[in-house]
Amino acid sequence: MNAVINESQRCVNLVPVNLFHCSSRDTVLNGYSIEKGTGVIAQISTVMLDEKIFPEPYTFNPNRFIDENGKLKKIEELIPFSVGKRQCIGEGLARMELFLIISNLFNRYQVFVSPSSAGLPSLEKSNDIGVVPRKIRAKLSRRYS
């Protein structure tokens, strides 16, 4: 379940444009000079869609987070909550809530995609500030009475 959640967060990237920051000193990054006071933005989506780190980045593949022993593998480049001193303070709580809500949903319900739906959700990105999901029709059926 955690591998599915990790892959979902990697693909969705709800906030593709992170908060603006300002460089605190002159520095050089990958050969580019960045002067003190320059506005910078951490582009999380470029990391989570990097083919060197995540082969076939536009394919939903939770197995990339499972090691050879079937255990959850930590990939440092998975950064849906940002990085550094200003990363989301609620990351631990959010991860726990995602696990509990999604696990309980699929434990209690079976999900069927409606034939009238336009298919499964797409991984295509929009040009909006946030990610806008494609509408999907689905039926939930209780697993237990």
UniProtKB/TrEMBL annotation:
Q: Which InterPro entries match?
A: Cyt_P450 (IPR001128), Cyt_P450_CS (IPR017972), Cyt_P450_E_grp-I (IPR002401), Cyt_P450_sf (IPR036396), Cytochrome_P450_fam2 (IPR050182)
Q: Where does heme bind?
A: 88
GO CC terms of this entry:
cytoplasm
Names of the cofactor(s)? heme
Q: Which PROSITE patterns match?
A: CYTOCHROME_P450
Q: Which GO terms describe its molecular function?
A: heme binding; iron ion binding; oxidoreductase activity, acting on paired donors, with incorporation or reduction of molecular oxygen, reduced flavin or flavoprotein as one donor, and incorporation of one atom of oxygen
Q: Does the keyword Transmembrane apply?
A: no
- What domain of life does the native source organism fall in? Eukaryota
Q: Name one GO biological process term.
A: organic acid metabolic process
UniProt keywords (A-Z) are:
Heme, Iron, Metal-binding, Monooxygenase, Oxidoreductase
Question: Family assignment?
Answer: Belongs to the cytochrome P450 family.
Name this protein carries in UniProt: CRE-CYP-33C12 protein
- Gene assigned in the entry: Cre-cyp-33C12
